[in-house]
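A favour, since you know our structure tokens better than I do. Go ahead and set the record down below.
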Amino acid sequence: MVTKVETDFKLKLVDTVYGCPETGVDLTAKFVTEGSSEKLTYNYFEDASLSSHLRDSTHVVLAGTYYIQAKGENGCSDTKPIHVKLTAPVIQVTYPEPVRYPATVDITKTFIKLPDNTYGYYADIHATIPLINYTAIDKSGMYFIKVQSAFGCEQINPVRVTVLPPFPFVVTAPNVFTPNNDGVNDSFALHIEGYVQFGNLDIFNRNGQLIYSTKSPTAFWDGNFKGKDLPAGTYYWIFNGLDTYYNIRIKESGSISIIR
């Protein structure tokens, strides 16, 4: 109510001030009364009767309707209501189903995005270590999604990702081959399944002499040594490689018999 006429007296308030439950709002902020007359003195109340002053108008942590009274230098005054809304961003995360490597998990698909919010993805609960591969996570663990509202409110939610390890690698080889150029079973090679990096394959005779060596997973041994056919008998192979999933070295061995 205006108690004395002032030609330049005007109280103008924003209708609603939005904030976060944990930080509240500042009703003394400049934008709240922007457009009002200059050199006004403001008082802040909890009720329309102006009987209860706000204890801390710079840190209002309860939503509701409050009242701001403005007084001019010549004694004019006016009081208007202002609404405070405190809203935390909402995010409901659904843990993804387990997958088996090399399948990956996209944690951006574990919740519904809202257009007014922004999202970040992190490796720690304090949201200080950003994830680079959040759309293709290939390791089990607990990851974290931070949502921020348009008003700066934040919430951090965990999401558990389970990526099962690949099935164990398999290195097998025939125990007999017949290098007689008939087009059937004429060469020897390893059969490898899984995440294995080929190192080298060495083949020895009974005396421990190295008669064949290759670093190529597609190479085949034709039963020759220095361009000559080796006699029928038993030979021994040793394979060295790397399990690229667990990053551990592999050593497998066996025997192969030549039948002519």
About this structure: The radius of gyration is 38 Å. The domain at 99-164 is CATH 2.60.40 (Immunoglobulin-like). The chain has a mean pLDDT of 94.
